[in-house]
Amino acid sequence: MKSPEKALQEANREIEKMALNHYLPKEIAQSESVYYNSFKESEEFHFTLTVLFVKDDQFK
Q: CA torsion sign, 35 to 37 to 43 to 44?
């Protein structure tokens, strides 16, 4: 299992690669949820960010 910091670093690298390949972010969707984990008797916060990239028209 990746650490949160490692996952964010990898996501940032992928976003940089998209920009280098002339893809632009078009839409962003975000969702957040809080779950109660009865096995651990604790709350868990889930955050999801989805980004839709499109090829820059100049480079199609």
A: negative
Which amino acid type is present at position 49? L
Dump the DSSP string for 30-57. EEEEEEEETTTTEEEEEEEEEEEEEE-G
- The DSSP element (H or E) to which 1 belongs, if any, is none
d(CA 20, CA 39): 44
Q: Distance (Å, rounded) from C-alpha 45 to C-alpha 33?
A: 6
What is the model's pTM? Answer: 0.66
Separation of alpha carbons 13 and 25, rounded Å: 14
pLDDT in tens, 38-57: 888 899 888 898 999 999 98
